[in-house]
């Protein structure tokens, strides 16, 4: 029992409260140097003999975190005071600093100076907190010097000249960041330094006169935080997250709760230096400036020529809702940003804009950086290595955006690779979507069972594991699938009923809770499928071997077994851990071929047919209940096995066999959801699909009304029925309407059942009151959680502590939603990338359908390739001249002034697709009109 | 077990087979334990006792204030005079001052030993008089019964109308040293 | 929120298994039969005992044992925001009951039939762990009043934050949302007289936290004994013997 020797009360003044907290000072805090004989050096990592020990102040941490992350910086004392200050100012930097500190190879030691008896200081009368902290840092540096003896070399790194002066006066070696980096003797590191304030003027000298007094003010001032708060309180200002239009970097919306609808922000000035994702305060503009032109243009702001709409894949679900809605209404409130409440800056991937005058080699140049994410404005950076970087994909961090700066200032962080290189571009996709692509760490791999794995004898003895090896189990998956996580069986029972089993890989048998493996999987959340590769959630031995339910090997499963009548009524449900031996791993096509081939009548084929019959009944019942049959234009690339270049592209074919498997997976998921919710009403991991709001369905209704289709959106059942009735002139019409409908849907979400009342559990798309994910534990972490919940519900295991914590489960669910969304975005981006590569040497003419009318063009959808993009009717540059085309919003038609051309939404037209390079190394798809129909 | 040590409640003092549990102790699981804070004392058994075990007790150092008990002599101040009795506040029990308030009542028949039916309260006491009295019983729930029916009991100090401390002149009278006026009292005989 | 830094220090600089600074004073109210203040860090409680004395209302008198009564209240100045906290609210009623039951178990009530013992406990300054602090103060006051007790009662709280069992939570840690477990025990008899916790924790974690709280309570008991001895010695000195 250690008692503190002495203590000091620390008083902190809040608004009105005087908070008194105890603050214990100790003398058992180690200095962290390996050679120290006085302190407990079990955790020591600093070497006092091999050169200097670095101490830095808060501003260095806040501004130069990128530098600190560089491996060249080591042997550093991180003061707890600095950590605390960083945490209060920027939690992101704090986390990064903590990551460095926890990395044993970096030799960063955290010294709790505020709790050390000899380094704690009290603020003096009249001393500002900043001065006090600076002094504390100096005292700590001095203490180290005294503690380690006169031979030690302690260096205080700070950019505060006054602090340096005082340190020198007290006999401490103090350097500025720039001076310090120079001592390291690595020129590349100098690029990592972020220039702030006075340092900038000294080091860049006359490269460009950047002194504030001479700069022109470009942007309106941000209001003071106090003004914003009072304004928000009075209702003059509105707070919300800024969402930049995917298609137009200078149009954004802020959904404010106080006003109840989205506020449109247009143009650079009104956005006033806000980034996508920033929480901003917005002031409404007078009503006469509200947007009258409800359609919006495809791209505006002619001076920003790279911001026109890009051709891309069709959005899956309603994540593009903001801009689709944006098109729908007249007189939407417009506003302008008057302050930024919380920045959402992160590191951005992209490339430097080429410059004519690239300056002398090795000298500093100012370059403009364009992020891969079009919603991000260009960023101005300084670099010494422009020539090296111009053809590379690089990562850049944003530092500041002053009123006087047209573009935000940033700095170079690292290089990914060459532009245009597929691996580099894939890397960019992964980085931009926060997908962890790093190989699994040794700790994670250590959790795997030894290979080659085979069924252990004790598993057979396990009374909780049923031996189902004698049953004819098979799997059906996409061709080439190696991570098979589901298998099925269907046998006719003597009483005429069927026993149907869904066998899911027993991943939780190998991924035990609270192991590094489990933590890693939980962080990754899902496997990510790119066109040419897959980023696994679990290490390969598990996904492709131990857990994969391949044919003719014994595998462990978690099974759901139903007894069903021939009318597909479920009589009973059993859940059990089991051992299976799959007799066949088929592809969808193979399974379909077997079912269709009337000559075959082997037991497996009979099973398949029986199953298919049951599935059809179940499917019909589900649709009658109101489940939506939605469509998404999934495309499939044929990839050259050697070059990994796409050879062909086409729509993904959906067969009966796919639907059959899907049906049983849905049924298994529903059964499991009911079971776990029955046992754990407060912390079941479920999946819900919220009902789309009428506002979200507005664009669909508008389009449907224009083509005289009547859609009833009162319920999912009504919508499903009316979608069935929507048959147009050609076979693709119905599918197109379904695609548009899919786009208006909300995203399905994971959640913890304790967070919502049961009516909210509803899954709209499947018309199921409760749903979860159980069937793909190899590639989704949610399923792993559900497996554990189910096992606990059956009494097979004790529920791991992490799942018993409601708050923790909520964070897990939030992370899964985030990862899931990112994985989808990454897949789409990958498909987009490959589409680009595909069309590079293949300019193509193809049929397209109009999905939206804009004032200066059309948005078309190309069914064959699943891409969507703009076709300009007017010349791109003269956007002012819109008079050639008359747009009728009600009927979604645009007619040329001379009446020669007339386009209506959902019309067919022929377009030309080709890859153009308006700037070197910036290839993009361009769609142009070829044919002029209904002339 | 060492005697003369400071003990706190719960501390084991010895086996019940070896000691008799005295004051401030209790027996639990055949052990004698302290129940109050104080100094442990061991008293050898009296020679006459049949059980020859020594007694162990814990004596508190902090004493409670004195409490009047029947038979003790107390000092009280007359607070109220009624036709048949006088109320008094007890201030001392024997030589010790009390720590809390105790009220006493001197009934008419307890004022003096003789001619008890002829006692006139106003000629015996006046409010403010300090009397010495003996506790004769615990009385009712409100007050102890006091008695001054002995020669050495009665008023020991009284103040005259003029404000001076009077001196006793007989067992029935006291005189003011300033005015020379005599006042009737049941005066205590100075021992 | 991080309640324990990776360096293993809590917000106030303690390590997870450390108590706050303990302080106690005996005999702070002259008039009472027994009184004491007890401080655990910034939590400060005064306890005053009257009795054994006559039972005030006859109907409550018990012929075979003493009547123990307890009144808990929180001074309105005990927290930063001045709020009226009477003795009537639910929390106070519950705490009064808890303290009464805990102390009743310690007092040898059968030795004092037909009498009444009143315990008044007031929180002068609150910074988490008031429950434990009240019990400790009450023990000291009872010992001061010389009321015979089986054993002293010592109490301590423990919690579970950031997957670590931590001892003697202060207010900040108390409001961290983790479990808050208060244990009161008879250290010499090694018996638990109070165990309270109002959240759910897994059984294995519970055991750890419970053991920690017991260890804490024993340390508190040691402190209480030392204080009592010291007080007795001073009384002896005052008497001049």
UniProtKB/TrEMBL annotation, chain A:
One of its GO terms (cellular component) is nucleus. One of its GO terms (biological process) is rRNA processing. Keywords: Exonuclease, Exosome, Hydrolase, Magnesium, Nuclease, Nucleus, RNA-binding, rRNA processing. SMART domains: PINc, RNB. Residues 52-165 form the PIN domain. PROSITE patterns: RIBONUCLEASE_II. Residues 465-796 form the RNB domain. Its cofactor is Mg(2+). It is found in: Nucleus. InterPro entries: Dis3_CSD2, NA-bd_OB-fold, PIN-like_dom_sf, PIN_dom, RNase_II/R, RNase_II/R_CS, RNR_Ribonuclease, Rrp44_CSD1. It comes from the Eukaryota. One of its GO terms (molecular function) is RNA binding. Belongs to the RNR ribonuclease family. This is Uncharacterized protein. It comes from Riccia fluitans.
TrEMBL record, chain B:
It holds the Pfam family EXOSC1. It comes from the Eukaryota. Residues 71-150 form the S1 motif domain. PROSITE patterns: S1. GO terms for cellular component: exosome (RNase complex); nucleolus. Its main location: nucleus. The keyword Disulfide bond does not apply. It is found in: Nucleus, Nucleolus. Keywords: Cytoplasm, Exosome. This is S1 motif domain-containing protein. It comes from Riccia fluitans.
From TrEMBL, chain C:
Gene3D superfamilies: GHMP Kinase, N-terminal domain. It is found in: Cytoplasm; Nucleus, Nucleolus. One of its GO terms (biological process) is gene expression. GO terms for cellular component: cytoplasm; exosome (RNase complex); nucleolus. Its main location: cytoplasm. Residues 18-148, 151-215 form the Exoribonuclease phosphorolytic domain. CDD domains: RNase_PH_RRP41. The keyword Zinc does not apply. Belongs to the RNase PH family. This is Exosome complex component RRP41. It comes from Riccia fluitans.
């Amino acid at each position: 029992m250690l008692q503190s020797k002495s203590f000091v009360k620390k008083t902190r003044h809040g608004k009105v409260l005087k908070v008194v907290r105890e603050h214990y000072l100790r003398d058992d805090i180690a200095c962290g140097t390996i050679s120290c004989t006085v302190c407990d050096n079990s955790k020591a990592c600093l070497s006092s003999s091999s050169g200097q020990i670095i101490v830095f102040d808060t501003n260095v941490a806040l501004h130069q975190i990128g530098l600190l992350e560089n491996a060249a910086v080591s042997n550093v004392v991180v003061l707890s005071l600095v950590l605390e200050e960083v945490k209060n100012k920027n939690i992101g930097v704090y986390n990064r600093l903590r990551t460095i500190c926890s990395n044993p190879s970096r030799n960063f030691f955290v010294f709790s100076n505020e709790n050390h008896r000899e380094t704690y200081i009290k603020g003096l009368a009249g001393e500002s907190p900043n001065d006090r902290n600076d002094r504390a840092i100096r005292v700590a540096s001095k203490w180290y010097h005294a503690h380690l003896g006169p031979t030690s070399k302690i260096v205080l790194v700070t950019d505060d000249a006054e602090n340096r002066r005082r340190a020198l006066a007290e006999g401490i070696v103090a350097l500025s960041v720039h001076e310090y980096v120079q001592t390291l003797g690595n020129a590349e590191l100098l690029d990592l330094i972020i220039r702030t304030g006075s340092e900038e003027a000294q080091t860049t000298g006359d490269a460009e006169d950047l002194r504030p007094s001479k700069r022109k003010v470009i942007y309106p001032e941000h209001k003071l935080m106090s003004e914003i708060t009072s304004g928000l309180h009075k209702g003059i200002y509105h707070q919300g997250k800024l969402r930049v239009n995917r298609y137009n970097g200078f149009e954004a919306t802020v959904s404010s709760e106080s006003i109840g609808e989205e506020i449109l922000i247009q143009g650079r000035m009104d956005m006033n230096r806000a980034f996508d994702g920033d929480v901003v305060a917005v002031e409404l503009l007078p009503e006469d400036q509200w947007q009258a032109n409800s359609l919006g243009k495809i791209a505006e702001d002619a001076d920003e020529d790279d911001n026109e709409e890009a051709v891309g894949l069709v959005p899956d679900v309603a994540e593009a809702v903001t801009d689709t809605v944006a098109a729908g209404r007249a007189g939407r409130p417009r506003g302008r940003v008057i302050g930024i409440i919380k920045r959402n800056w992160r590191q951005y991937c992209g490339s430097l804009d080429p410059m004519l005058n690239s300056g002398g080699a090795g000298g500093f140049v100012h370059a403009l950086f364009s992020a891969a994410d079009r919603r991000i404005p260009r960023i101005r950076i300084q670099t010494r290595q422009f020539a090296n970087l111009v053809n590379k994909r690089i990562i850049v961090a944003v530092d500041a955006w002053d009123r006087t700066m047209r573009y935000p200032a940033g700095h170079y962080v690292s290089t990914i690779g060459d532009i245009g290189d597929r691996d580099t571009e894939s890397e960019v996709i992964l980085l931009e979507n926060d997908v962890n692509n790093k190989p699994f760490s040794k700790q994670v791999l250590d959790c795997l069972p030894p290979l080659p794995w085979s069924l252990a004898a004790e598993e057979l003895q396990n009374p909780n594991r049923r031996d189902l090896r004698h049953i004819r189990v098979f799997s059906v998956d996409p061709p080439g699938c190696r991570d098979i996580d589901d298998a099925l069986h269907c046998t006719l029972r003597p009483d005429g009923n069927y026993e149907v089993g869904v066998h899911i890989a027993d991943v939780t048998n190998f991924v035990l809770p609270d192991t590094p493996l489990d933590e890693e999987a939980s962080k990754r959340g899902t496997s990510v499928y790119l066109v040419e590769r897959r980023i696994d959630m679990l290490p390969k031995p598990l996904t492709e071997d131990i857990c994969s339910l391949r044919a003719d090997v014994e595998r462990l499963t978690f099974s759901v077994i139903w007894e069903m009548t021939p009318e597909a009524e479920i009589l009973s449900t059993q859940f059990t851990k089991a051992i299976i031996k799959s007799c066949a791993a088929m592809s969808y096509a193979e399974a379909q071929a077997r079912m269709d081939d009337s000559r075959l009548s082997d037991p497996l084929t009979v099973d398949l047919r029986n199953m298919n019959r049951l599935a059809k009944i179940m499917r019909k019942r589900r649709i009658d209940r109101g489940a939506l049959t939605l469509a998404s234009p999934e495309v499939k690339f044929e990839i050259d096995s050697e070059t990994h270049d796409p050879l062909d592209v086409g729509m993904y074919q959906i067969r009966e066999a796919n639907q059959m498997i899907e049906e049983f997976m849905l049924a298994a998921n529903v059964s499991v959801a009911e079971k776990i919710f029955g046992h754990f009403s407060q912390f079941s991991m479920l999946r819900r699909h919220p009902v789309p709001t009428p506002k979200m369905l507005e664009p669909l209704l508008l389009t449907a009304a224009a083509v005289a289709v009547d859609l009833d959106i009162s319920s999912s059942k009504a919508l499903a029925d009316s979608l069935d009735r929507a048959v147009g002139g050609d076979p693709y019409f119905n599918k197109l309407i379904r695609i548009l409908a899919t786009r208006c849907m909300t995203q399905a979400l994971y959640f913890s059942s304790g967070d919502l009342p049961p009516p909210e559990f509803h899954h709209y798309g499947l018309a199921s009151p409760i749903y979860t994910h159980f069937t793909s534990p190899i590639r989704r972490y949610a399923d792993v959680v559900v497996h554990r919940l189910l096992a606990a519900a059956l009494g097979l295991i004790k529920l791991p502590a992490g799942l018993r914590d409601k708050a923790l489960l909520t964070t897990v669910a939030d992370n899964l939603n985030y990862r899931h969304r990112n994985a989808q975005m990454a897949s789409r981006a990958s498909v987009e990338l490959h589409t680009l590569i595909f069309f590079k040497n293949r300019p193509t003419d193809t049929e397209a359908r109009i999905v939206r009318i804009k004032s200066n063009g059309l948005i078309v959808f190309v069914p064959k390739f699943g891409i969507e993009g703009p076709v300009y009717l007017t010349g791109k540059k003269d956007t002012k001249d819109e008079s050639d085309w008359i747009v009728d919003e009600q009927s979604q038609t645009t007619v040329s002034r001379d009446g020669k051309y007339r386009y209506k939404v959902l019309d067919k037209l022929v377009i030309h697709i080709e890859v153009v390079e308006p700037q070197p190394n910036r290839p993009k798809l361009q769609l142009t009109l070829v044919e002029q129909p209904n002339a | 077990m060492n005697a003369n040590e400071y003990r706190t409640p719960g501390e084991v003092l010895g086996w019940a087979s070896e000691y008799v549990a005295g004051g401030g102790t209790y027996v639990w699981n055949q052990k004698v334990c302290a129940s109050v804070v104080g100094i442990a004392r061991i008293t050898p058994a009296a020679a006459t006792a049949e059980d020859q075990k020594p007694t162990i007790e814990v004596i508190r150092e902090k004493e409670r204030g004195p409490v009047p008990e029947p038979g003790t002599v107390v000092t009280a101040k007359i607070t109220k005079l009624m036709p048949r009795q006088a109320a008094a506040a007890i201030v001392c029990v024997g030589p010790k001052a009390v720590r809390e308030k105790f009220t006493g009542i001197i009934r008419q028949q307890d004022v003096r030993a003789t001619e008890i039916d002829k006692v006139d309260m106003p000629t015996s006491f006046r409010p403010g008089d300090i009397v010495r009295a003996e506790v004769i019983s615990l009385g009712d729930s409100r007050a102890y019964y006091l008695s001054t029916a002995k020669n050495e009991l009665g008023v020991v100090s009284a103040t005259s109308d003029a404000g001076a401390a009077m001196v006793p002149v007989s067992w029935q009278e006291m005189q003011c040293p300033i005015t020379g006026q005599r006042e009737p009292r049941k005066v205590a005989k100075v021992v | 929120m991080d309640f324990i830094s990776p360096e293993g220090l809590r917000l106030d600089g303690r390590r997870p298994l450390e108590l706050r600074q303990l302080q106690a004073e005996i005999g702070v109210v002259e008039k009472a039969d027994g009184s004491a203040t007890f401080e655990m860090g910034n939590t400060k409680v005064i306890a005053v005992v009257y009795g054994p004395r006559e039972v005030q209302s006859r109907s409550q008198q018990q012929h075979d044992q003493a009547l123990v009564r307890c009144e808990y209240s929180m001074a309105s100045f005990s927290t930063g925001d001045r709020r009226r906290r009477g003795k009537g609210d639910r929390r106070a009623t519950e705490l009064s009951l808890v303290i009464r039951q805990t102390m009743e178990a310690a007092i040898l009530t059968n030795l004092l039939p037909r009498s009444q013992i009143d315990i008044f406990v007031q929180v002068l300054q609150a910074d988490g762990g008031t429950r434990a602090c009240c019990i400790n103060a009450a023990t000291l006051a009872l010992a001061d009043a010389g009321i015979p007790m089986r054993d002293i009662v010592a109490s301590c709280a423990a919690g579970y934050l950031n997957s670590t069992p931590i001892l003697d939570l202060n207010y900040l840690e108390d409001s961290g949302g983790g479990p808050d477990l208060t244990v009161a025990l008879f250290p010499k008899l090694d018996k638990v007289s109070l165990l309270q916790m109002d959240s759910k924790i897994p059984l294995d974690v519970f055991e750890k936290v419970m053991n920690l709280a017991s260890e804490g309570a024993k340390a508190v008991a040691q402190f209480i004994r030392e204080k009592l001895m010291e007080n007795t010695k001073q009384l002896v000195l005052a008497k001049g013997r």
